[in-house]
User: Fold this.
Amino acid sequence: MILYEYPLHERVRTLLRLEHLFRRADVLQQSALPEHHHFALVTLFEIMDVASRQDLKSEILKELERQRQTFIGYRGNPAVAESALDAVLGELDQAYQALDQQHGRAGQSLQDNEWLMAIRSRASIPGGTCEFDLPAYYAWQHLPQQQRQSNLAQWLQTFAPLASSIELLLRLLRDAGKTRKIQAVNGVYQQQLSGKTYQLLRLRIDGALGLIPEITGHRLMVSVRFMQPDADWRITPSTDEVPFDMTLCP
Assistant:
């Protein structure tokens, strides 16, 4: 099964992008190849670009506090295990404190690293990080694997409070949704939201079907059109009856 996620709120769109970048950076950082470490640095710069939004930290802190108040409201509910509730509240408190105690925007300290900023300014130029452009960077790529990995881990660590908060918020959001089995007719499915507010749509489809969902959504309706690629990956609409699972997360 292939899982597709579509944000129905701009804040969730930003969180999903950062989660994607953090996961990519983690995989690349663990590699032994200097070429992969180059792209780990490029990903680090992408994280810096996305996380540079002035209001991002305050938005995440507000959402952590909102979730905390929501879970506090479950106190005394016989359908909720107190031990599980305490564990979630502990995670929310820890994430809030770690992010709140970080001064300035996430990754702000990296802006003072002139060596990193020199690489960042050249990385957007095709071939701009060759050895004749950045000899110091070329020398770094020839350091032992463990030293390069240690450097990358240190730089990525500056985003650890942000990454942990995002991981927690998205996990809670995903867990709040209910999954339904659905059949698209002639390759299309639409659903009115009837005034209910959702933040995320999750769609699972059997990869063996060879179909790609094109998802659109707003506060009133979500729509899915399934497309099929040919041998050259030209995409055309499917007219099949398509089974899939869909989760709407409030």
User: Anything to note?
Assistant: Residues 10-30 form the longest helix (21 residues).
